[in-house]
Amino acid sequence: MKHFDQAAVEFPLTELWDQLVCGRVHVVDTFHSEQWCYLLLELRPPDDQPRRPPSERKTEMLARTLRGERQKAVAVDLRLAPSTIALTVSECLKSMGLDGRAARVPIPLVMAAHALTGETPFTHGRASELALDLPGVADLPPGALRAGGGRPCRVVSVPRPDTELGSILSGAEHAVARLLVEGKSYTEMAWLRGTSVRTVANQVASIFQKTGVSGRAEFLSALVRKQKLVPRGTTEADGASVGARRTVPCRPAPTVPSIVSQPPRREASKRWEGSPRREGAPTTPNGPSSSSLEVF
Questions:
Q1: Cβ–Cβ < 8 Å for 137, 165
Q2: 200, exposed or middle or buried, with CB in 10 Å at 0-12, 13-18, 19+?
Q3: Does residue 9 share a domain with residue 54?
Q4: Percent of the chain's residues with pLDDT above 90
């Protein structure tokens, strides 16, 4: 990867978004290093017929979903069915050459969606042109160069946003969080980690709990925004460490008077004793007999 890093030039992520939406580039593959996330793009030849870009409304659905908004909330705002939002997002991703599932979206595209609104410090990445005979291509993982016909490719790289998670996560959770950022499924993470899918699911749930998010989209959005990740139910003032538990002063339990010591409810006793079914009943300690309560 050193050759890509040395030959790269600054590249605005908003331009990456425009090129993907308009179809001028096509995602071939993604790969990662310890410090960087890479996006391998295939440049469309000038003589190719341009693809019709999605409408502005569809692009808005995609951008809002990638910025961590829940699809149900977007559907309510746009007065659409949640299934329509999910289908539109999947179609937009597939048109870019990506997996249609939102959980597989590469982190450079998430950063590009946030860069449109300036909600992230990651506004620029790095780009370098790639030739098939370029030194360093052999370092790519198998299947990375799927662009056929000798078409030119471009590598866009962005810094990993998960490098600071080690302060609030355990070692195993941090490793799972990095795979989560890379878009790995639970099955893939379990295979790479040499553990069970259930263990991975429990670790992911713990990651979300410790970072105060409810899902992968919100998790990535918080990382890209460089938002202060605080466990649920805590604030930064609750302790010196982010993971400090919030202490809530215990209030004394309210004193409940004993039922035995409560005086009898006079009205209820009268109504019961004066009912026709109770006529002739003996006098009770709580009140007079029914004969003395002929009229209410």
A1: no
A2: buried
A3: yes
A4: 50
